[in-house]
């Protein structure tokens, strides 16, 4: 902005002279009033930056200053604020302290307020532009910093998942074959000796072990092949799952209720969708064990919404904290002492591979996992 012309030149000259005479007092008062942390690595430069802005204000009273001059100082300070990990609010506060202090000083110059008003407007304009450029640059640098951190975090996750994949391959190879043999011999024993005690329990525990092994396998190889997809009757799928988990439901003293559309179908990889639902239900049962009341409820509902089907799995266990609800779907995040932190991550990945969504809602005594999947328009005949 150009300096004032004509009769106002003498006003500007008086203000400049006054500011030069009170410069040390101004900077001392400003420094006493600002927020400056002891651990700020650039605290020794703050006074110099304030002085530079002070000089720019004086220069603007003599002649116009280019926006690039303001921007250059603003960018320099923004970079220092980012590197010092300071709060941008502190910077804005300090700038406004400088603004108000300058204006207070020129008001004391003895010049009438009518003559000062255009000068005050001009000073406010310079401070506004300075603050705008600094905050904008600060935000840009912070975004770059966050993106760089996310690249590192994502690469770290990829590295860990790669390692997990190698471990899973070895794990599955070493354990799946003997496990399959053991499960086969248990079935033979059960057929030949139907009255033999504990066989159902042994068979169930082996099925659970097989499920956990498969979970590790999916954590490293999350692919959905169209050729493996099939039309699945949702009611039948949940009947299979609850039969599989019946011992866990009884052991947890859980009251299960289901409201499932008997005609609804989806097209999906059955084993993978089954794994997701089993994992969510098992997690719900685990959560209910922390509910000391005798009324432990697990409610499963399905609801058709246009081209999608919505599954709602709700328990009345403890509330999941707000800051935890998103993190639970991240790999290796767990609140369990012996948890792996891959269960919900695998669930989310498999659901998204099926073009669906999964999220969590949690309140006092009510936690829900909501899953949506594309629905198949064709409905099979129900026997």
Walkthrough of the structure:
- This protein is an alpha+beta fold.
- It has two domains: 6-148, Orthogonal Bundle (Globin-like), CATH 1.10.490.70; 225-374, Histidine kinase-like ATPase, C-terminal domain (Heat Shock Protein 90), CATH 3.30.565.
- It is 61% helix and 13% strand.
- It has helices at 9-21, 23-33, 43-62, 67-83, 88-107, 113-192, 199-220, 234-244, 246-251, 270-288, 322-325, 343-353, and strands at 230-233, 254-259, 265-268, 296-305, 308-315, 357-363, 366-374.
- It has a five-stranded mixed sheet. Strands 1-3 form a two-stranded antiparallel ribbon.
- β4 and β5 (308-315) form a beta hairpin.
- α5 packs antiparallel against α6 (113-192).
- The radius of gyration is 34 Å and the shape is elongated.
- It starts with 8 loop residues before the first helix and ends in a 9-residue tail after the last strand.
- The model is unreliable at 1-8, 222-226 and 377-383 (pLDDT under 50).
């Amino acid at each position: 902005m150009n300096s004032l012309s004509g009769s106002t030149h003498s006003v500007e000259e008086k203000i400049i002279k006054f500011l030069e005479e009170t410069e040390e007092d101004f900077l001392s008062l400003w420094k006493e009033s600002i927020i400056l942390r002891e651990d700020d690595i650039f605290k020794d430069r703050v006074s110099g930056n304030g002085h530079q802005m002070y000089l720019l204000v004086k220069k603007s009273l003599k002649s116009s200053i280019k926006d690039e001059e303001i921007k250059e100082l603003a960018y320099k300070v923004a970079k220092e604020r980012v590197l010092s990990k300071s709060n941008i609010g502190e910077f804005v506060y300090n700038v406004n302290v400088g603004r108000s202090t300058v204006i207070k000083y020129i008001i004391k110059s003895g010049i009438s307020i009518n003559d000062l008003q255009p000068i005050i407007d001009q000073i406010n304009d310079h401070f506004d532009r300075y603050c705008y450029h600094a905050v904008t640059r600060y935000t840009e640098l912070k975004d770059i910093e966050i993106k760089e951190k996310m690249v590192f975090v994502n690469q770290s996750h990829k590295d860990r998942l790669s390692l997990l994949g190698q471990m899973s391959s070895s794990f599955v190879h070493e354990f799946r074959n003997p496990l399959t043999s053991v499960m086969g011999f248990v079935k033979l024993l059960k057929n030949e000796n139907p009255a033999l005690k504990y066989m159902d329990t042994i068979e169930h525990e082996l099925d659970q072990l097989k499920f956990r092994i498969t979970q590790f396998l999916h954590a490293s190889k999350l692919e959905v092949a169209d050729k493996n997809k099939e039309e699945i009757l949702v009611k039948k799928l949940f009947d299979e799952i609850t039969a599989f988990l019946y011992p866990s439901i009884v052991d947890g003293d859980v009251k299960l209720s289901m409201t499932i559309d008997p005609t609804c179908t989806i097209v999906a990889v059955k084993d993978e969708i089954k794994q997701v639902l089993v994992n969510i239900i098992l997690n719900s049962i685990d959560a209910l064990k922390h509910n000391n009341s005798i009324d432990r409820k697990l409610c499963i509902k399905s609801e058709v919404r246009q081209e999608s089907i919505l599954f709602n799995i709700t328990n009345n266990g403890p509330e999941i904290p707000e800051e935890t609800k998103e993190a639970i779907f991240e790999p290796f995040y767990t609140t369990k002492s012996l948890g792996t932190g891959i269960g919900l991550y695998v669930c989310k990945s498999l659901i998204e591979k099926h073009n669906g969504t999964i999220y969590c809602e949690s309140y006092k005594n009510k936690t829900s996992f909501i899953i949506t999947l594309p629905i198949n328009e064709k409905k099979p005949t129900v026997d």
